[in-house]
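Why should sequence recovery work at all? Because a backbone constrains its sequence more than one might expect. Tight turns favour small or flexible residues, buried strands favour hydrophobic ones, and helices have their own preferences. The token representation captures these environments compactly. In the example below, the structure is given first.
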């Protein structure tokens, strides 16, 4: 299991090796949303984020592994890595509801003691439905706290979403990448048109071809996601990469990352592509 505490240890370890690290803000439960940075701080930036869906915490391990794998490389643009944007949810999915004060409420929302399929944050809001992008219009959206798909009381109501929005506006990236699981698919589309659609499809295609994944066209009832917000509010390309094949099933663990090693190259590959656009 790759936990929030192991991520913190990796932050200490990589910081000692000279990697810039820090926090973009705190979760509902007060945990830091941690980041790493590689490459130049001036000029264009890329943001790579994982672990926004609790049960998909292997994406947190993957994003930290990208930092380890790429830290000696020469990047033409800077990259911010956010391995675990939902640290409370990840901890809940991994360890269950341990704190007595929270237990009753969470077990009720979850409908049981097994939290291994939980996707939301500690308030039962699915953070990837909480961004201000056709908020509440998504397929399967829910209107009350749940293990997944609850949109929250209003767009950007959650501290994790707020932190990610403020950070993204501050960094003003050329592009963002969100890691999810599963399906071995790449998504790029959210109601963009014309040249933006062409540009984003080409970027999606290059990643899908490199990874041997399917490129998925259309918005497919998506709404309120980080990718959706980046595309619609910022007008930048934003990819969702779903790792791990359909032959695997949730809950996933480290062993399911086998065969996904090509993803380690994605941040470097994309900075090289973006630098030449
Ligand atoms: Zn997901």
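From this structural description, the recovered sequence reads:
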């Amino acid at each position: 299991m790759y936990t929030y505490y192991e991520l913190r240890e990796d932050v200490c370890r990589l910081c000692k090796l000279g990697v810039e690290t820090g926090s973009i803000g705190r979760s509902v439960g007060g945990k830091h949303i941690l980041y790493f940075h590689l490459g130049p701080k001036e000029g264009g930036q890329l943001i790579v984020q994982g672990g926004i869906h609790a049960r998909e915490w292997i994406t947190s391990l993957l994003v930290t592994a990208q930092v380890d794998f790429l830290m000696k490389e020469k990047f033409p643009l800077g990259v911010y890595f956010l391995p675990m944007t939902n640290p409370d949810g990840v901890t809940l999915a991994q360890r269950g509801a341990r704190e007595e004060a929270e237990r009753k409420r969470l077990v009720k929302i979850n409908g049981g003691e097994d939290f291994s399929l939980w996707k939301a944050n500690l308030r039962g809001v699915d953070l990837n439905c909480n961004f201000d992008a056709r908020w509440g219009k998504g397929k399967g959206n829910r209107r009350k706290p749940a293990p997944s798909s609850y949109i929250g009381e209003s767009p950007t109501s959650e501290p994790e979403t707020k932190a990610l929005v403020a950070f993204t506006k501050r960094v003003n990236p050329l592009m963002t990448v969100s890691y999810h699981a599963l399906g071995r698919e790449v998504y790029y589309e959210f109601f963009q048109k014309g040249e933006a659609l062409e540009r984003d499809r080409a970027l999606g295609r290059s990643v899908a071809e490199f990874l041997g994944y399917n490129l998925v066209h259309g918005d497919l009832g998506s709404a309120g996601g980080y990718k959706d917000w980046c595309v619609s509010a910022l007008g930048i390309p934003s990819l969702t990469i779903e790792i791990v094949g359909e032959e695997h099933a949730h809950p996933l663990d480290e062993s399911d990352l086998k065969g996904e090693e090509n993803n380690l190259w994605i941040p470097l590959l994309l900075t090289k592509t973006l630098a030449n656009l």
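A few observations help interpret the result. The mean pLDDT is 97.
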